[in-house]
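Suppose you are handed a protein chain with no further information: no name, no annotation, nothing but its sequence. What can you learn? This example shows the usual starting point.
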Amino acid sequence: MHATVRAPAALGLPAREETKVVSRDAFLSAMRRAASPVSVITTNLGGKRMALTVSSFLSVSADPPLISVCVNRSSKMCEAMVKSGSFGVHVLSDDQAHVADMFAGRPRSGEAYDFSCVDWVHQGEAREPLMAGVAIAAECSVVSVTEAGSHNLFISEVRNLITNEKRPLLYWNRLYGFPAHAADVRHEN
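A reasonable first move is to predict its three-dimensional structure. Written in structure tokens, the prediction is:
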């Protein structure tokens, strides 16, 4: 695992003119317009399980199989992921909004971060348990960590993968939803 930070010139890109960046509020408003899968990342550090809901999961490469997630650098989860070097990423299914809320720290009932809100697939000693019933569950090993503004970008190799045919839960404009196939939508004339 290593950190990489490269300036545009180091990448062979032309120098940019100094321009004013958009405001934080304008940026957040625009990013609400982008739908993203709702994922929960998990890790275990020193016998303590941790989980956090994120919307920053992306596929990076198929050869080798790599994914990325971004986590706020000031969070305990970020520190734990760096130290453990491994984590699970779980793309929630369309019936798991309650799980997203649980690991975002705003449970609909009970205590926040309660791991009993979902079933787990235990993979054995020193392996990351994976959530059952999700659209995608992946056990990952950290390949690199890059500082990116207030967050760390984790690029990780997928070590184990569980999938099913459930639709993923999406987040758009502060609302949960799920994709619909054109054949699922009926138009009235």
